[in-house]
Amino acid sequence: MPTTRAAAEPTTRRPPPVRSRRMTWRDRLHRFDVRVVPYLLIAPFFLLFFVFGLFPMVFNAVVALRHWRLDDPELTGWAGFENFSRLFTDGDFGNALYNTFGIFLLSTVPQLLLALVIASMLNRRLRGQTWWRVSALLPYITPITASTLVFNVFFSRDLGMANWALGLVGIGTENPIDWRADKLHSWIAIATMVNWKWIGYNALLYLAAMQSIPRDVYEASALDGAGPWRQLWRITVPMIRPVVIFTVVLSTIGGLQLFTEPMLFDLNAQTARGGAGGEWQTVAQLIYKVGWKDLNLGYAAAMSWALFLIILVVAALNTLLTNRLSGGRK
């Protein structure tokens, strides 16, 4: 029986119209959970950052551009960049900046180098490996005030253990070293406090990064005749470069903001003078002295912004230099 044309062609059926379903309370709760809850969870961070981070920075910038003295409210007024230009001729600020960089170099460079060596030693098979790793962190968890007060006794001129130990090798037997009398000895004492506290912390950071390096790399290099020292600088340091840069940046920020150790090293810490002649007064100490002892908040705010810019520049230079020395891209 012949089929008609209509019967031969397949018929296309339209899908039934979708009926809009009314949203239930479960649907609204799911939409709220997906779209709103993530913003609510991160909102406390941004709120705290605005209140205790962004607002103080902006307010401090405004104060730095004004004459603002707590002891004489009548002197309050617009100063422009006068406070900043005064920094270039201020001998106290130049002395504090010189002390800050001196202590920074004596603490940061030995600190990171010794941390690398200690981390390399802890990365090997040792007896009591866990004990050694935990003991490396003990100085870090010690309260900084307590450790600084102990070091004050350690570096005492007449009864300190530092002079006693040096006397065993014939140094300072007749004239004990006065660690608070000049810049170099005071810098060494304060740098020793900083190094003692942070070497173990940085060593554990390096150790955690070293754990990710395959053992096959060290075995292959040993077959080629590379010793432990060459393996450290040719293999380990380039492969943990991101962590090295991270510790360099953190050490730069902490070293240039040094406050507690030099503050408590002074026998009369309330003056914030950093010694009788400012032998170890850092920029952070000077900011505290100018702002809360001399009550000149405008000039202290300008110092803090100058220190902030200096830290940015030095941290950037240290990052580039570390990246270049550890085998990074030029």
TrEMBL record:
UniProt keyword list: Cell membrane, Membrane, Transmembrane, Transmembrane helix, Transport
Subcellular localization, as worded in the UniProt entry: Cell membrane
Transmembrane segments: 36-59, 96-122, 134-155, 187-209, 239-259, 297-321
Pfam families, per database record: BPD_transp_1
Keyword presence, Transport: yes
InterPro entries assigned to the protein according to its UniProt record, in alphabetical order: ABC_transporter_permease, MetI-like, MetI-like_sf
Ranges where the ABC transmembrane type-1 domain occurs: 97-318
Membrane topology: Multi-pass membrane protein
Family statement: Belongs to the binding-protein-dependent transport system permease family.
Name of protein: Sugar ABC transporter permease
Gene assigned in the entry: cebF_3
